[in-house]
Write a structure and sequence with these properties.
This protein is an all-alpha fold. It has one domain. It is built from 7 helices and no strands. The longest helix has about 30 residues. It is elongated. The two termini are about 25 Å apart.
């Protein structure tokens, strides 16, 4: 006989994971606004360490590119602002499943599809934009980690739906 978890622990786990996921989206969004300042700090750390690693070189090169672009064409950063805003808006969408996961499972499905789509985006656009492979793999970890969190939520929500558990 198939064991179904009828306890509120499943609902609690789903809500905690979704809150964590939304907080990660918010953090990711908020940190995209001051990107030049953050890169300046990271570049100063790599300069101070004297590191010649590919990561250190990439951080310094990225800072130079962002700094020069912002100096000459500050309106280009508006695209990064919209990226940050999109993360915040997507995080808001997860309020629905946090309130009622069964009713709003479509948000989990949407989020999972977006996480999976990170992989081809990182490799296709990353190649076109000359992003080093190690950085594309770092980007992919966000999609994989997010997809893992959302797949756990999805399967728990389906079990709750089968068991008739309501939020």
């Amino acid at each position: 006989m198939k064991r179904i978890d009828h306890t509120p622990k499943t609902l609690r786990r789903v809500k905690i994971l979704l809150i964590f996921f939304a907080i990660c989206l918010i953090f990711s969004g908020v940190t995209a606004f001051p990107i030049e300042r953050q890169l300046a700090i990271a570049a100063s750390w790599t300069d101070g360490s004297g590191s010649q690693s590919p990561l250190a070189d990439w951080i310094r090169r990225t800072y130079e590119g962002v700094h020069e672009t912002n100096e000459r064409f500050p309106f280009i950063a508006y695209g990064t602002d919209w990226l940050a805003f999109a993360h915040l808006v997507i995080a808001l969408a997860f309020i629905g499943p946090i309130r009622d996961p069964v009713k709003n499972i479509w948000v989990i499905e949407f989020g999972f599809i977006a996480c999976v789509a990170v992989l081809p985006m990182a490799f296709i656009a990353g190649e076109a934009r000359e992003i080093p492979i190690f950085w594309r793999l770092i980007d992919c970890t966000f999609g994989v980690a997010g997809g893992l969190v959302l797949s756990i939520c999805y399967y728990d929500i389906k079990r709750m739906e089968t068991a008739g558990i309501k939020a």
